[in-house]
């Protein structure tokens, strides 16, 4: 069985994002880009499944400009066997990605497609669900535990829902999207970074996949949340009462 | 006088070496004045003794390691029938007596201080004073009854002028993160806290010059500069509390020294207040200024013993966007050295940190530090090296670093390694290195030594110490390999004079013998004031004392520290 993992290149989790001056989006020039943390978790899970003997190959796929290859290389250094880069514009919306993924699934025929539950840049949380719909595969979203049964060809997925856990049993092939607590992704070690250099990254185009990129959405504007006013240190209780009364109007 | 001191130093060394020999040594017991849990038992320990009198013979003298003693002629020594009076301090029980020349605070003093500062800045609150009297390791404890918090140089000048005329001793205090007891009072010195002097005065984006007050917290400066696209030339674990004035007073080194050099290079100017209250404006912002003696250098690293720094002009560097961090494993110390040699050549200008830790340090971190995760869990290695590169071009830098790492792997210098793929991984690698002191604190008692040594000899000391102490304690070595700075730490379940006697003076003698420094970046403070001769010739120390006499004739500034008290009182 092959496992396909979707990998997105995003602004690094630790970077404080800045809005472009024309408010069309977030500044990405000269900003550290990394693999979406949820995609890292998805890849880690795929690697674990492979190491446990349930899968024969892990394929990382990414859609976007040529820089995505760096992110795929990171995935290969973590342990993916090969990668596919589909050259596409930087801005892709979930439905487009879901269609592209569906096209790749039909070529590669994996037994499992694992995605992060969402990307930390647009927080859409839609791609996994859409691709499951398009493929007509069962889906286990927000997975916090995944157990595979090779004989019965099923996956048991624990989902984190409000106030508890829900356990689902999915027939393979299936789509799984990963939550934060599923696993702790491994580091890319030097020997694996060296090995990754010779692993293949296949280049494909949107046309080859016969997907028409059409956007039903338009971003009107992106703005920063209003800045929080700094706190003040007051010298007495009387002053506090005065401020609560006359400035905050809460008492 | 010079000769006397030289001989004193020699005898001092000999006494230490021959504690158990047949020399006639009379012991005189004396309790340490700074009573704390660490020196309770010092009265019964060798380290706590004061050696009062000794005779020394020639052959023994030849066995001495002190490098500068070789210069001492035998004639001088033969005439010697030495009587001296010097204390042998342990880590916390450095035996000093309150200088009787100093006055004690009276109610008139308090009235005066409240008049010039206002009530808010004159602190007599017991709890606040308790914190200010104790260093952060809880190793040194003074008994000051008064803390003053001047807001500017004018206020400080009035304070010092008054204290000088009244012979009231003072201790300057910033973030109080020092490791050698330099920032807390020994007795009842008035604490002069700089925290209210915390404004940023000026920043120039073209030159990168930052002018600010001494009480600015390092981390605040770092975040201020971050918004401007610049970085401070120094970074250290205590950045959240330590203040720039204290950093400069102690000439702090830290993690980026290998790249940006010492504060002697990056500090462009200072404003200081002398003991007599004169405000000395040396607050230049120029990189080049050859007009007369460059006096600011006297105050960098003088640990508040010559003046109190009030303003700082410092050169900052542009923040470069591409930072890469590798965490590597080496099988032996020689590989670490070779790796450093290769890193300097192959990474060149982008190398910004080269840190090392041994397996014992790694083990402590993994057991005691929250959130620490071993990047290389597949095996246990003897040494770990953290390499950071900082440059302006992401893909170039990464390519360079990867080529270097591949070479290091192929030539077996590195057994394994991980390269941070994003900031959170980078942070978790730094967390291991920066968290060692915290892990050590959690593990129990810790004896800390901060030594500069030739890189090739550095780790021998750790191994020798391990043999000396056996199972009694855990000897840990880590530090700034790129700067030849070893942090030798001995971790034990509790403080124990038997362990201390095994460590000191051995560690100082060893360092001296290899022409190292007994204080690379922590300073001398109270802990090592009397140990200065291990790293400096007696003529040098004498000259230091003369300078101190000129700038602070009454010795009120941070007394009992930096220079042996016999020279200044």
UniProtKB/TrEMBL annotation, chain A:
<dbReference type="GO" id="GO:0005759">
    <property type="term" value="C:mitochondrial matrix"/>
</dbReference>
<protein>
    <recommendedName>
        <fullName>Electron transfer flavoprotein subunit beta</fullName>
    </recommendedName>
</protein>
<comment type="similarity">
    <text>Belongs to the ETF beta-subunit/FixA family.</text>
</comment>
<dbReference type="InterPro" id="IPR014729">
    <property type="entry name" value="Rossmann-like_a/b/a_fold"/>
</dbReference>
<keyword id="KW-0813">Transport</keyword>
<dbReference type="InterPro" id="IPR014730">
    <property type="entry name" value="ETF_a/b_N"/>
</dbReference>
<feature type="domain" description="Electron transfer flavoprotein alpha/beta-subunit N-terminal">
    <location>
        <begin position="23"/>
        <end position="213"/>
    </location>
</feature>
<keyword id="KW-0249">Electron transport</keyword>
<dbReference type="GO" id="GO:0033539">
    <property type="term" value="P:fatty acid beta-oxidation using acyl-CoA dehydrogenase"/>
</dbReference>
<dbReference type="Pfam" id="PF01012">
    <property type="entry name" value="ETF"/>
</dbReference>
<comment type="subunit">
    <text>Heterodimer of an alpha and a beta subunit.</text>
</comment>
<dbReference type="InterPro" id="IPR000049">
    <property type="entry name" value="ET-Flavoprotein_bsu_CS"/>
</dbReference>
<dbReference type="InterPro" id="IPR012255">
    <property type="entry name" value="ETF_b"/>
</dbReference>
<keyword id="KW-0496">Mitochondrion</keyword>
<comment type="function">
    <text>The electron transfer flavoprotein serves as a specific electron acceptor for several dehydrogenases, including five acyl-CoA dehydrogenases, glutaryl-CoA and sarcosine dehydrogenase. It transfers the electrons to the main mitochondrial respiratory chain via ETF-ubiquinone oxidoreductase (ETF dehydrogenase).</text>
</comment>
<dbReference type="InterPro" id="IPR033948">
    <property type="entry name" value="ETF_beta_N"/>
</dbReference>
<dbReference type="GO" id="GO:0009055">
    <property type="term" value="F:electron transfer activity"/>
</dbReference>
<dbReference type="GO" id="GO:0009063">
    <property type="term" value="P:amino acid catabolic process"/>
</dbReference>
From TrEMBL, chain B:
<dbReference type="GO" id="GO:0051990">
    <property type="term" value="F:(R)-2-hydroxyglutarate dehydrogenase activity"/>
</dbReference>
<dbReference type="InterPro" id="IPR036318">
    <property type="entry name" value="FAD-bd_PCMH-like_sf"/>
</dbReference>
<protein>
    <recommendedName>
        <fullName>D-2-hydroxyglutarate dehydrogenase</fullName>
        <ecNumber>1.1.99.39</ecNumber>
    </recommendedName>
</protein>
<keyword id="KW-0274">FAD</keyword>
<dbReference type="GO" id="GO:0071949">
    <property type="term" value="F:FAD binding"/>
</dbReference>
<dbReference type="Pfam" id="PF02913">
    <property type="entry name" value="FAD-oxidase_C"/>
</dbReference>
<dbReference type="InterPro" id="IPR016166">
    <property type="entry name" value="FAD-bd_PCMH"/>
</dbReference>
<dbReference type="InterPro" id="IPR016169">
    <property type="entry name" value="FAD-bd_PCMH_sub2"/>
</dbReference>
<dbReference type="Pfam" id="PF01565">
    <property type="entry name" value="FAD_binding_4"/>
</dbReference>
<dbReference type="InterPro" id="IPR016171">
    <property type="entry name" value="Vanillyl_alc_oxidase_C-sub2"/>
</dbReference>
<keyword id="KW-0285">Flavoprotein</keyword>
<dbReference type="InterPro" id="IPR004113">
    <property type="entry name" value="FAD-bd_oxidored_4_C"/>
</dbReference>
<dbReference type="InterPro" id="IPR016167">
    <property type="entry name" value="FAD-bd_PCMH_sub1"/>
</dbReference>
<dbReference type="InterPro" id="IPR006094">
    <property type="entry name" value="Oxid_FAD_bind_N"/>
</dbReference>
<dbReference type="InterPro" id="IPR016164">
    <property type="entry name" value="FAD-linked_Oxase-like_C"/>
</dbReference>
<keyword id="KW-0560">Oxidoreductase</keyword>
<dbReference type="GO" id="GO:0005739">
    <property type="term" value="C:mitochondrion"/>
</dbReference>
<feature type="domain" description="FAD-binding PCMH-type">
    <location>
        <begin position="140"/>
        <end position="319"/>
    </location>
</feature>
<dbReference type="InterPro" id="IPR051264">
    <property type="entry name" value="FAD-oxidored/transferase_4"/>
</dbReference>
<comment type="similarity">
    <text>Belongs to the FAD-binding oxidoreductase/transferase type 4 family.</text>
</comment>
């Amino acid at each position: 069985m092959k496992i396909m993992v979707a990998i997105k290149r995003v602004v690094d989790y630790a970077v404080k994002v800045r809005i472009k001056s024309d408010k069309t989006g977030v500044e990405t020039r000269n900003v550290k880009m990394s693999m979406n943390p949820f995609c890292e978790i998805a890849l880690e899970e795929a690697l674990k499944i492979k190491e446990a003997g349930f899968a024969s190959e892990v394929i990382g796929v990414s859609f976007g400009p040529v820089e995505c290859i760096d992110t795929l290389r990171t995935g290969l250094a973590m342990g993916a066997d090969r990668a596919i880069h589909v050259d596409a514009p930087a801005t892709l919306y979930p439905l487009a990605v879901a269609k592209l993924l569906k096209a790749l699934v039909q070529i590669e025929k994996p037994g499992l497609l694992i995605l992060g539950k969402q990307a930390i840049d647009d927080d859409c949380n839609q791609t996994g669900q859409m691709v499951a719909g398009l493929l007509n595969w069962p889906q286990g979203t927000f997975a916090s535990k995944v157990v595979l049964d090779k004989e019965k060809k099923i996956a048991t997925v624990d989902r984190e829902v409000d106030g508890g856990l829900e356990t689902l049993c999915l027939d393979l092939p299936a789509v799984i999207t990963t939550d934060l607590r599923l696993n702790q992704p491994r580091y890319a070690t030097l020997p694996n970074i060296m090995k990754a250099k010779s692993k293949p990254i296949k280049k494909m185009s949107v046309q080859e996949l016969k997907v028409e990129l059409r956007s039903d959405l338009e971003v009107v504007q992106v703005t920063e949340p209003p800045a929080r006013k700094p706190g003040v240190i007051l010298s007495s209780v009387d002053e506090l009462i005065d401020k609560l009364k006359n400035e905050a109007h809460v008492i | 006088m010079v000769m006397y001191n030289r001989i004193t130093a020699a005898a001092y060394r000999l006494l230490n070496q021959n504690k158990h020999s047949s020399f006639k040594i009379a012991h005189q017991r004396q309790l340490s004045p700074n009573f704390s849990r660490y020196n309770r038992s010092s009265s019964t320990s060798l380290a706590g003794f004061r050696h009062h009198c000794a005779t020394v013979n020639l052959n023994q003298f030849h066995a001495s390691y002190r490098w500068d003693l070789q210069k001492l002629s035998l004639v001088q020594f033969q005439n010697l029938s030495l009587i001296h009076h010097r204390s042998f301090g342990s880590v916390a029980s450095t035996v000093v007596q309150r200088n009787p020349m100093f006055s004690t605070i009276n109610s008139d003093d308090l009235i005066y201080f409240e008049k010039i500062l206002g009530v808010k800045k004159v602190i007599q609150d017991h709890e606040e004073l308790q914190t200010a009297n104790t260093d952060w390791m809880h190793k040194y404890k003074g008994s000051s009854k008064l803390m003053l918090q001047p807001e500017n140089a004018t206020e400080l000048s009035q304070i010092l002028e008054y204290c000088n005329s009244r012979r009231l001793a003072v201790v300057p205090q910033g973030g109080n993160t020092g490791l050698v007891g330099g920032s807390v009072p020994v007795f009842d010195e008035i604490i002069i806290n700089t925290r209210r002097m915390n404004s940023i005065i000026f920043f120039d984006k073209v030159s990168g010059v930052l002018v600010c007050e001494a009480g600015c917290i390092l981390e605040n400066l770092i975040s201020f500069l971050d918004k401007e696209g610049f970085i401070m030339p120094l970074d250290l674990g205590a950045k959240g509390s330590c203040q720039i004035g204290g950093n400069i007073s102690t000439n702090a080194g830290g993690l980026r020294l290998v790249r940006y050099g010492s504060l002697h290079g990056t500090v462009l100017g200072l404003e200081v207040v002398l003991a007599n209250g004169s405000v000395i404006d040396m607050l230049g912002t120029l990189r080049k200024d050859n007009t007369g003696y460059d006096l600011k250098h006297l105050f960098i690293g003088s640990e508040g013993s010559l003046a109190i720094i009030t303003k700082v002009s410092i050169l900052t560097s542009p923040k470069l966007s591409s930072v890469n961090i590798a965490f590597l494993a080496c099988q032996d110390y020689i590989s670490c050295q070779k790796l450093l040699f290769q890193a300097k050549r192959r990474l060149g200008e982008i190398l910004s940190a080269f840190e090392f830790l041994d397996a014992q340090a790694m083990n402590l971190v993994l057991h005691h530090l929250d959130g620490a995760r071993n990047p290389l869990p597949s095996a246990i290695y003897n040494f770990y090296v953290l390499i950071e590169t900082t440059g302006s071009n992401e893909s170039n830098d990464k390519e360079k670093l990867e080529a270097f790492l591949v070479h290091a792997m192929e030539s077996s210098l590195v057994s394994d390694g991980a390269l941070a793929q994003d900031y959170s991984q980078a942070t978790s690698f730094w967390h291991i290195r920066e968290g060692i002191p915290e892990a050590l604190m959690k593990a129990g008692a810790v004896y800390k030594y901060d030594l500069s040594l030739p890189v090739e000899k550095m780790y021998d000391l750790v191994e020798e110490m391990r043999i000396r102490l056996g199972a009694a304690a855990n000897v840990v070595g880590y530090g700034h390999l790129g700067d030849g700075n070893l942090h030798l730490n001995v971790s034990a379940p509790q403080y124990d004079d038997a362990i201390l006697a095994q460590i000191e003076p051995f560690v100082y003698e060893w360092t001296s013998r290899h022409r190292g420094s007994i204080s690379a970046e922590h300073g001398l403070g109270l802990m090592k004031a009397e140990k200065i001769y291990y790293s400096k010739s007696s003529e040098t120390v004498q000259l230091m004392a003369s300078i101190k006499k000129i700038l602070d004739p009454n010795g009120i500034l941070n007394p009992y520290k930096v220079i042996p008290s016999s020279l200044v009182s």
